[in-house]
Structure formats: C-alpha cells, structure tokens
Write the structure tokens for this entry.
Amino acid sequence: MKYQTQKIAYWFFATCMLLFSLQLVYGFIMGFAHMGFDGLHNIIPFNAARATHTNLLVVWLLTGFMGAAYYIIPEEADRELIHPKLAYVQLGALVAVGVVAIIGFHMNWWEGRKFLEIPRPLDYLVVADVLLFIYLIGGTIWKGKRYTTTSMVLFLGLLMAALLYLPGMINTDHQTLDSYWRWWVVHLWVEGVWELIMGAIMSFLLIKMTGVDREVIEKWLYIIVGFTFLSGILGTGHHYYYIGTPRYWLLVGGLFGALEPLAFLGFAIYAVAMARKGGKNPDNKMAMAWTMATAILSFVGAGFLGFAHTLPQVNMYTHGTLVTAMHGHLAFWGAYACLVLALIAYAMPKLTGRNLQDSRMNVFAFWTSNIGMIAMTLAFGVAGIAQVYLERKLGMDFLTVQKEVEVHFLGLVLAASLFSVGIVAYVWNFIRFGKPSGEVK
C-alpha cells in the first residue's frame, strides 16, 4: 500500500465479508420457507427474514463502498486520510446501527417500508454516520495534492447517496406519497448515484490494471456519468406506474426506464475496450476477472433483465412477482457485489504483501459463485413466469400460486448452495491474506 491510512479499508472489507455471509444465511431461511419448510417461522418470521436479508445487502455494499473510498482516495489525492481515528469510530457506529436494526426486525421494531425498514431513530444515526464519512473523504480530497476525475466522481456519488437518503425520512400518512419518496431513495441510489460510485471504482481499477492512460479512461467516465443522469433520474417513473400517481408516469417511466440499459451497456463496452486497449497482462488476474464480471453481468442483470419488464405493458403483469427477484438478484450481484469483490481482490495483496490473489481457491470462488448466481437467476425466472401466468393471467389466488411454485425453489436452493460454496471460498481466501502488514511501498 502507498499510504498507512489505506489499511483502514481492511476493517471495512472484513465487515463486508461478515455481513455478506450472514445475508446468505437469511437467504436460505427464505428459500426453504418458499419450499414449504418454514420451521423457523415462530422464531424468525418470513417478513423479518426478508427485511434482514435485503437490509444486510444494502449495509454490506455500503460498507464495501466506504472501504473502497478509504483505499482509493488517499492514492487519488496523494496524501494520507485526515483524522484516521474517526474512520474507525465511523465504522463502529455503522456496525452498531446495523446490529440494533437487525435485532429490531426480529422484535417487530421497524417501519415496514420495503428496503427502508429500519426504525426512525436509527435513521438519524445513519445520517450522522454518513456525514462523518463524507467529511473524512471530502476533507482528504480538499487537502490533497491533486484532484482527479475519478476521486471527484466517487465523492459526488457518495455525497449524493447521503443526500438522497433524506427523502425517505419525510413523514407522511399517505401510501402513495410515502411510496413516491421511498423510490427517490431506492431507485436513485441503485439506478442513479450508485452508478457514479461504480464508474469511479471501475475507473480506478482499470487505470491500475490495464496501463491505459488516465485521461483516456476518465473521458469514458464522463460519458457514463452523462448516460446515468440522462436516464436514471426520470427512469424513477417506472416505479410509479400503479401506486396512485398521475398517468403521465406511464410514458415517462416507460421511455426513460427503457433508456437505462444504455448506461450499463456503456459500462460493459468501457471496461472491455479499456482491457483490450491496455494489452497488459495484469499481475492480479482475479481482480481483473471480477472487474470484467461487473461490467458484463451488470448489463445482463440490471440492463437487459431490467428492460425486459420495465415497460408498463409488461410490468402490469410482472410487478411484485418473482420476475422482479430474478432481475434484482443478478442486477445487485453484477453491478455492485462483483465490484466490491473486485476492489477487495485488488487491494488485499497491496495491503498485506501476500500474493494469494490468483490462488486456485480464488479462481474456484470466482467461477462457482458466478455460475451459482446465474443458475439462481434462471430459477427465479422460471418460478416468476409460472407465477405471472397462474396469478395474473389465470387469476388464481396468491397463496395457491405460491404453493404451486414451491417445486421451483428446490432448484433455487441448489443453485444458492453452489453460489454459497463460492462465497465461502472467497471469504476463506480473504482470511488467508491476514491483516495489513503496515509497510508502505
């Protein structure tokens, strides 16, 4: 590592690995419940398992983004992180909020708003924690020896993610208004500002691993940012079709939602083109593999599968079904999970001085987890199409349909098992790296 304070990122990455592993446990609880084996219902009701599963996803990804920022920004700003002790305080506070929230879900203390379930008092603690993070990152950039496009786009994405959490805290007793503001947070995060974070981290990785000139890579980054804002902001409308908003959202949401895959297509072309242009044999092949997986699977999961059911004529049948889960799982995995795993794979040899990045275990983890996720996506797709036909076309009762699609979750659980084996291998390889060496190179 180039700077001592970059080792702070390690503790965020370690937290990622722990939270990701816990998320898998709750995924299996739900998978077995869908198969009709809900033996833990009295202890962990399905709604609590679902809230925990989805919120752990958000928290471990945000933790990964924060760790990535603590690793990237010192190098981009060409100086040590300001107030490094506060970064450890910030991590401790983030973990404390997460633990309290999960315990709250199991004790029925939550808001019940999908993806924003954490109780309102914890929202204020989240805001305070993120403001501290933004101060540390922004202050480091401000006092740095240089300003780069990569660091500024990363900071802008993180800052906007913090600001866009606030609409979700607007008090309203109206269901439509509540859903309206909630999608400002959920959509504009994952299909808006998180894409800026994605672009910046990918830019950093490609600069480091391909040997392509920074100016060339960062020009592509400008184009990606433009596509993101062009389509992502008004693309929020594809969540407004059937929640009680005016009918013009059918046109706006359908049109701009259909344009959103262009940003992810841009990411795919961008990454592959830079890798080919560089012509350099990277000394960390698995970090490059995870980076390419991010580019390609994000287009397939978030772009193609998102477009497949974003038009109102299709969405009126697929909305709220397992088709959404099909899109959501591969989208989050491709766009953001693979990205965090790519940065960790790149950073760990630098932090520890141990060259375990291209070990057989890491190669096994890459292929097993990605094949498992693709198989999970197919299982969700088959179950979702069956659900749409039986429930939305034939008009069968919701619970009756859930009983009919139970058989498909056997395939899903088997695919999830393969995926989990890959993640366990990745986590084990992470543990083998050990703690940062403390040596600056």
